[in-house]
Amino acid sequence: xxxxxxxxxxxxxxxxxxxxxxxxxxxxxxxxxxxxxxxxxxxxxxxxxxxxxxxxxxxxxxxxxxxxxxxxxxxxxxxxxxxxxxxxxxxxxxxxxxxxxxxxxxxxxxxxxxxxxxxxxxxxxxxxxxxxxxxxxxxxxxxxxxxxxxxxxxxxxxxxxxxxxxxxxxxxxxxxxxxxxx
Length: 182
Hints:
By secondary structure, the chain is mainly alpha-helical. The protein has helices at 37-41, 51-76, 80-96, 98-101, 114-132, 146-181.
């Protein structure tokens, strides 16, 4: 018996014990999964980059550069006080510009640098939204919400009518002032 199928032993059965697949069985068609309408209304979950991890990584890069300078100066044979002073100066300069250290476009990042990748993706998305002229108030999927679209259409219509009334009043005032002059 293999995987619970077939005879325990072929002895006395008049067969060799080989199990043959039933080729006459027809599988039923797969059932389609029923989806909730609410599943499509919610936006996809995008994980934000953890700023604490990003800050830690930037500080780590600063310390790596300081350590490289320390090793270089020790190889040159400077005394400890001069080395400490130069390393502290470099550290202060780098910490002043710490925001510029971690900026990358995301192309040179490894797949395990998930927070850096998500920060780069957020930056790219913001750049794309700016290029396409998408407002910050825009909600994804709102174009498919018929009630919201009807409401927005009514608001635009009321705004146009109010602007038209203001324009007509202005023109009427101009006409009346011209009549008074003449």
